[in-house]
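Incident log, support desk, overnight shift.

02:14 A customer reports that sequence design results differ from what the structure should imply. Their input is reproduced verbatim below. On-call engineer (initials T.W.) acknowledged and began investigating.
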């Protein structure tokens, strides 16, 4: 197998785990886990996506982007991975607003505030997270796609313009991104406003790591297992307690975790290589993309049925709440699998056919 085509299964499985934690962070259910520090701060697991993306994109493309044609093909392929499912979920939200307009099922005014008509166009163009709106719009989690595509553009331009030193320029941009994030009131909880510096920080540190990870001596056997366990515990404990400016360090922890698990040398890596977890990793993008729509519809129904005495769905029994939360997550996974099978994968295959280099 061409090394550039290698799939880092353990890292992909971890992406699936991170997607679950982000869903748990957003889930409006008064469950046992709702008030855990790890879950309350699980928005930080999004930064694993940025670090991992920088790592795998650099691994796959750093030797392949040599001409503007290569860069154009790269951008089309990357957009083909994210845009079709993004548009599908956006269409579902627009359909929900049309139902709200036609059937008046609640008191919310359709197509206003975070669901404005103008925000439809910024979302279609994936520019919604560049401080042009006063809040998240439509499918809130899609802000990550907006800034990740921006990172792809910068990555391609750096490779074309400065092929010998692009990693170091990217690392300098990562430092600038981190400094900008530190100047913001929300620190690492920036999304629609200063999300791009946050993404650049993670993406280009991941790219830098990819350039040197094979040269860094790795532990084997039981020592590798101990290091993997330490990485997982370190990340979870840090996220469970980190607040304010200290959250900026989470990206460095994810860089370390990617280095530890990329080699797949320990027992945890072998566990993550199990087919169910690898499959979860492949569904992770669809889970991430569809989950908020499911939660929004659930909240609308819950308010109609008086399931929300406060800001969370609560049936009066925390165990019943847990069961409801698990069922809700199951529904999210089912819809994600359907989206992955009938939208995400066919779109990827079609884009790959379109952009396949012609034989000489």
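02:41 Re-run completed on a clean worker. Output:
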């Amino acid at each position: 197998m061409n090394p550039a085509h290698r799939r880092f299964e353990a890292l992909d499985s971890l992406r699936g785990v991170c997607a679950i934690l982000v869903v748990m962070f957003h889930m409006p259910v008064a469950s046992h886990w709702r008030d855990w520090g790890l879950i309350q701060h699980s928005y930080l697991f999004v930064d694993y996506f940025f670090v991992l993306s920088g790592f795998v994109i650099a691994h796959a493309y750093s030797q392949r982007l040599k001409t503007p044609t290569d860069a154009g093909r790269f951008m089309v392929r990357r957009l083909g991975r994210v845009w079709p499912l993004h548009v599908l979920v956006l269409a579902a939200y627009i359909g929900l607003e049309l139902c709200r307009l036609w059937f008046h099922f609640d008191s919310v005014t359709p197509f206003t505030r975070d669901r404005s008509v103008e925000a439809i166009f910024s979302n279609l163009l994936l520019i919604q997270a560049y401080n042009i709106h006063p809040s998240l719009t439509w499918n809130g989690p899609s802000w990550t796609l907006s800034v990740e595509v921006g990172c792809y553009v910068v990555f391609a331009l750096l490779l074309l313009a400065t092929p010998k030193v692009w990693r170091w320029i990217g690392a300098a941009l990562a430092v600038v991104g981190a400094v900008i994030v530190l100047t913001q009131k929300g620190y690492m909880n920036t999304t629609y406003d200063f999300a791009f510096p946050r993404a650049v920080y993670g993406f280009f540190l991941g790219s830098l790591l990819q350039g040197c990870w094979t040269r860094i001596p790795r532990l084997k056997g039981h020592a590798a297992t101990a290091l993997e366990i330490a990485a997982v515990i370190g990340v979870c404990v840090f996220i469970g307690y980190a607040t304010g400016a200290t959250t900026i360090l989470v990206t460095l922890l994810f860089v370390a975790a990617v280095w530890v698990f990329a080699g797949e040398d320990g027992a945890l890596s072998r566990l993550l290589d199990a087919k169910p977890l690898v499959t979860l990793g492949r569904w992770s993008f669809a889970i991430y993309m569809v989950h908020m729509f499911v939660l929004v519809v659930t909240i609308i129904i819950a308010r109609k049925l008086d399931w929300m005495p406060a800001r969370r769905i609560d049936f009066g029994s925390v165990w019943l709440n847990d069961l409801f939360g698990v069922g809700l997550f199951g529904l999210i996974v089912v819809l994600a699998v359907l989206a992955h099978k009938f939208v995400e994968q066919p779109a990827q295959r079609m884009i790959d056919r379109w952009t396949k280099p012609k034989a000489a």
